[in-house]
Amino acid sequence: MPGPSSAITSPDIAAAPPAAPLADNAPAAASAPDNPEALPVVHTEPLPVAATLGGIGVLFVCAAGAGAATFRGARAQQARLAAARAEFLVPMSAGGA
To answer: Each residue of 43-65: pLDDT tens digit?
Structure first.
């Protein structure tokens, strides 16, 4: 079993070239990249409008469905409470205690 100090060597893995040391007065960010194959990190293209509006539409439909289900359940609970009150609680006008 290899120890913690053993290095992994493989012909498929190429070693990265050492980084060039910066001068003491060098700016923190370089103005132009040295590697032409490097891609920028910041995405400058906006999302497609159809995908954005479609996603918002789907979220809106889901929210409306959840609201309708919640409202329906709340109305059913109110009907059950009203039925229980009518069954167990006698109105005061009918001579209840």
So the answer is: 666 778 888 899 999 999 999 99
